[in-house]
Amino acid sequence: MPDRGGGPTGPRIRAGRPSRRVRALLVTLGVLAVLGMAFTMFAGFWTDWLWYRSVHYSSVFTTTLWTKIGLFFVFGLLMAVAVGVNIWLAHRLRPPLSAMSMEQQSLDRYRMGIAPYKKWMLLAVTALVGLIAGASASSQWRTWLMWVNGVPFHQRDPQFHLDISFYAFDLPWYRFLLGFGFAAAILCLIAAALTHYLYGGLRVTSPGARATAAATGHLSVLLGVFVALKAVAYWLDRYGLAVKSSDFKATGDWTGLRYVDANAYLPAKTILFCIAVICALLFFATLWRRTWQLPVIGFGLMVLSAVLIGGLYPAIVQKFQVQPNEQAKEAPYVQKNLKATREAYGIDDTKVTEYAGKSGTADRTKLRDRVDGTASLRIMDPNIVSPTFQQLQQIRNYYGFPTNLDVDRYSTADGKDQDTVLGLRELNLNGIPKNNWINDHFRYTHGYGVVAAKGTEADAEGRPVFTERNLPSKGDLGTYQQQVYYGEKTTTYSIVGGPQKEIDYSDDEGEKTTSYTGGSGVNLGSPLNRAAYAVAFNEPQILYSGAIGKSSRILYNRTPKDRVEAVAPWLTIDGDAYPAVVNHRIQWIVDAYTTSNGYPYSSRTTLGDTTADSLTATNTSRTVVAQQNRVNYIRNSVKATVDAYTGEVKLYQWDTEDPVLKTWMRAFPGTVEPRSDISAALMAHLRYPQDLFKVQRELLTRYHVTNAQTFLSGSEVWQVPDDPTNDSRSAVPPYYLSMKMPDQDAQAFSLTTTFTPNGRDNLSAFMAVDSDPRTDDYGRIRILKLPTSTTVDGPKQVQSQFNSEQDIAETISLLSRGHSKVEYGNLLTVPLDGGLLYAEPVYVRGGELKYPLLRKVLVTYEGRTAFEDTLDEALDKVFGVKGSTPPPDTGTTNPPGTGDPTVRQALEDAQKAFDAGQQALKDGPDWDAYAKAQKDLRDALRQAEQAQSKAGGTGGGDRGGDGG
Question: Angle at CA 459, nearest 5°, toward 456 and 464?
């Protein structure tokens, strides 16, 4: 019988070892896996390079890339060499081996085991630490660029009298170098100690000396380097006190030196620096003395001094010198903090004016005449009416509007600026007839046109009065490029310009098609480009689809904020990009900020927290895009634009004095265009940015005070009130509207907000900033401070009064019948003749009607309240025009006399009219029937009011209840 085990008659097969074919297959699979991973990494790099080149900001990509590569190799090599040299030196200084103890006999086995691989192990260890160190260093590219390109602030800190650029640009880099030095010293010390131990230079249980002279000298030098670095750290810590954050109970967040810092920590750091230098010298001296006695004593002294001088002594000073007389001790340092914080946030020129809070004019008719000249009260709330735009101007399901529309100003026929609510009709892929790869990325590629409406008007049915409408859009904006390839809702990629036609829009004549000619995007004619994007987007069809031709281009990174952030990764991006028609093109305007965390004595703020409000709580796309979330310096240094058709990004220098922007312009030359290149047409649509305003208003809740004693007492602390029309319990958003402050001669486009006392709801102050850059007062912050001797109702109290008025509550209840829902718009506050006028639009979503229509306007002024169909009617009633009766002194409202048969009948008629209106909306909707029902509703409610007034049950004619 043959030998089945592989004897002389047949080949012997070794058990457990794969065949040659299997090994070849495994090697091939391994090579393919490596090549796949390599191409995946290459695809990411290559597509990034192609994109930056397509937007003409390739210098940003190359500068950032070469900086990262340089830092990676320099610091990775330094770390690898430092660790490798110390391992080699420890091995070189090893003693003659003699296995005289159990410890050495055990180690001898390890020494013998690694002997053949010593070089490879050395290379592996040094490569590993080098890669980690290099990767960590490459992330510091911003710190490096700011250090090497930094320009002076030409301002000095009040403690050390150094230029602020030292803290903003130099100190962060020095701290990185110090941290790298500590890491290198510790790794070298560990590596050297392990090597010495392995080869007998250090002993734990063996008899005799615990360390050889060579090991003692080597390790003591490394310890000396570590202690010397600690001395440098103590010295830098002295300057770090100027930008140190601490929790100061009198003021909350605090940055800069306090009394205990200047009189305890600062001298302590100097003393500890001297002790550390001496201790380091003692460690270095062991090269000659060969004993650790003195350096160990010195190190112990340094540790003890750090505890006593650096910890205990400042605590004693704080306890027995500062706390008994805190305000007097801290006042000089608080004054420095006040000055620095106000300068760093651009609020040092804020004008605070005492405001009466009560009108001094008895003639109500004159007050009524002054309203129109004081403010253009906007009753179209851009945060409410988006569904209305959607319903009335969507035209096709594959279009959509953003959740929050924008407010801008456009000239009317007579040349006057008019507050306008507008939004772009952007692409909505969820509404296309059939979702597939071709439809989603080739045919439905863009939105179409601007839709705009007057901010201060509504038609008889409560709908917006459109000034730009229909498809294609027509109206007051004239002719412009209407295709919207880049927008806030455009988050997916599109492939355009190839053999596949795109759907442009549809009208009564049928479907219109187009091919993109904007020139943006990356060409997919190259097989390499197609393969790279197929991998980058995880979409294999890009590689082989016949719908892609040699002229096809791929568009991505299409939201305005993403594009600006990508081309300027050193900027912080405002949360609200807004569109404007400029020179016959739709341009997205994006505000961008330069920030710093190193402005001495300026208190820090967290951008994500201070810019949050009730709008960001429900729409995360409006949140700020912060490169550095914790800052103590901010400037709106750049105004950026993104063309909605071509995607072209332009950065304009706005703050020509900002040293942080100048630094980045030196790092990335040619990326930011001069302010003089901003056209007059574009300048007309620029505005003061919301996120900067929200940061400034948060700081001004405390820093409106300029006196240190008042600041420390906390008696003047304000707060930003919660939005009274929103249940999110988030801050009220600032509102844009055209208005004039008491010291202004004419209305100006402004951004406004209110303040309440800390922990209370009455009004403390009203704040506005001029937002029109065409005026000399652009950026001028004005605060009207209300008297503390009397109370003026704040937004929450005003809203509560609205809701508690008996006749208003009944009308709102009537409007809310069935499936209808009442929505409150922006509660606007306007200073008027020493008093404060509040106005709020009220919308109703009725029945099957899924979009809000303006039904009522609430207005109040000094205790007089009106709830009318239109703003003019409400103002007339509040100011006693057209026969209104003043309210009683008590400010209360008696319940209506609903027991009167005439009143009951009128209310029944009102309910019938309301139901008829809801039915009209369901049927079509039938707008003629709906308008008739609304007229019947108003007549019925007016009849009920008249009957109620005759019965003597109103208690106040100003609180009317006309239907809507």
Answer: 60
Region of 934 (left: φ > 0; alpha: ψ -120 to 50; beta: rest) is alpha
Q: What percentage of the chain has pLDDT greater than the value 90?
A: 52
394-398 own/partner pairs: CB under 8 Å, 24+ apart: 394/425, 395/425, 395/470, 395/471, 395/505, 395/506, 396/431, 396/471, 396/505, 396/506, 397/428, 397/431, 397/432, 397/433, 398/427, 398/428, 398/429, 398/431, 398/432, 398/433, 398/444, 398/503
User: Residue with structure tokens 């009753």?
Assistant: 379
* CA 320 – CA 175 distance, rounded (Å): 33
In this predicted model, which residue has the larger pLDDT, 728 or 373? 373
How many other C-beta atoms can be found within 10 angstroms of the C-beta atom of residue 457?
16
Q: How many CA atoms lie within 13 A of 881 on its CB side?
A: 14
Contact status, residue 533 vs residue 552, Cβ threshold 8 Å:
no
- Structural domain boundaries enclosing 339: 223-344
Compute, in degrees rounded to 10, the torsion defined by CA atoms 399, 402, 403, 406.
-140
Decide if 15 is inside a domain. Answer: no
| Rounded Cα gap, residues 146 and 172, in angstroms | 9
Sign of the CA dihedral with 873 first, then 876, 882, and 884 last: positive
Residue 174: Cβ within 10 Å count: 18
- Measured CA to CA, the distance from residue 714 to residue 408 in angstroms comes to 38
* Residues 211 and 222 sit within 8 Å (Cβ to Cβ): no
Task: Report the phi/psi class of residue 773: left, alpha or beta, with left for phi > 0 and alpha for psi in -120 to 50.
Answer: alpha
Domain boundary among 663, 686, 709: 686
Pull the structure tokens for residue 238. 């002295």
Q: Token match 């049915």: residue?
A: 461
User: Phi then psi for 943, rounded to 5 degrees?
Assistant: -65, -40
Q: What residues contact 640, with CB distance under 8 A and at least 6 apart?
A: 564, 568, 589, 590, 591, 592, 649, 650, 651, 652
Residues 83/127, Cβ–Cβ less than 8 Å: no
Q: For 624-747, where are the E strands, in sequence order? A: 630-631, 633-643, 649-653, 672-673, 718-719, 735-739
> Do both 442 and 416 map to the same domain?
yes
> If pLDDT is split at 50, 70 and 90, which confidence band does 104 have?
low
User: First and final CA of the chain: distance in angstroms?
Assistant: 107
The sign of the dihedral angle between the CA atoms of 349, 355, 360, 361 is positive
Regarding whether 888 and 813 lie in a shared domain, the answer is: yes
C-alpha span between 55 and 48 (Å, rounded) = 11
One domain, residues 273 and 317: yes
The verdict on whether omega for the bond into residue 472 sits within 30 degrees of 0, i.e. cis, is: yes
Residue 933 domain-assigned?
A: no
Instruction: Tell me how many domains the chain contains.
Output: 5
> What DSSP assignment string belongs to 635-662?
EEEEEEEEETTT--EEEEE--TT-HHHH
- Residue 515: HSE in the Cβ half-sphere, 13 Å Cα cutoff: 10
| Residue 788: C-alpha distances to residues 192, 353, 757, 764 (Å) | 70, 14, 10, 8
Residue 931 binned pLDDT confidence (cut-offs 50, 70, 90)? low
Report DSSP letters for 878-945, one per residue.
HTTTTSPPPPPTT---PPP-TTSHHHHHHHHHHHHHHHHHHHHHHSS--HHHHHHHHHHHHHHHHHHH
d(CA 738, CA 415): 15
3-state class of 384 per DSSP? coil
Element (H, E) at 473: none
- Give 836's strand partners: 831
Q: What is the pLDDT of residues 786-833, one digit of tens each?
A: 988 888 888 888 888 888 888 888 888 888 777 778 889 999 999 998
pTM score: 0.85
CA distance 512 to 504: 5
Measure the CA–CA gap between 570 and 424, rounded to whole angstroms.
29
- Domain stops at, among 863, 893, 923: 893
